[in-house]
Specification:
By secondary structure, the chain is mainly beta. Helices cover 0% and strands 53% of the residues. The chain contains no helices and twelve strands. It has strands spanning 13-17, 21-28, 33-39, 43-44, 48-49, 54-61, 64-68, 71-75, 80-83, 89-93, 99-106, 114-115. The strands form three sheets. Strands 1-2-3-11-6-9 form a six-stranded antiparallel sheet, with no helix packed on it. Strands 4-10-7-8 form a four-stranded antiparallel sheet, with no helix packed on it. The chain has a two-stranded antiparallel ribbon with strand order 5-12. One of its GO terms (molecular function) is metal ion binding. It comes from Mucilaginibacter conchicola.
């Protein structure tokens, strides 16, 4: 069995989302998704929740502002937070520099996102 080494230039796929945000897929199975995402300054995603998936965000660079079930939480580099199934949430970059983070989802969020 071969164990691939991933980087931004050598990932499964890249994608653009939201307001000029970018992502890199490193693991993409039904059971697990691992992505790196970049949010430019003054960007935000839509409020949503997942019925099955649990997510863990780990901040690499910048400051992330999360709204989770109406509560605001700010994370800095080397901090992480778990979002449980059913929790309404979104992430924002309210800073003047890029926000980069790793996002783990189990199971994958494919077909498991309800936008509000």
């Amino acid at each position: 069995m071969e164990n691939p080494i991933f980087s931004r230039s050598e990932c499964l796929s890249t994608y653009k989302w939201g307001d000029d945000c970018y992502g890199w897929n490193y693991v993409d199975t039904d059971a697990l998704s691992i992505k790196q995402e970049l949010m430019p300054p003054d960007t935000s995603e839509q409020l949503h929740y997942h019925e099955k998936a649990s997510q863990f965000f780990f901040i690499l660079k910048g400051r992330a502002t999360f709204t989770i079930d109406g509560e605001i939480c700010v994370l800095k580099p080397e901090q992480g937070i778990e979002i449980k199934p059913g929790q309404q949430h979104f992430i924002s970059n309210k800073e003047s520099s890029d926000l980069e983070f790793i996002l783990y989802s189990s199971p994958s969020t494919k077909n498991d996102r309800v936008n509000l």
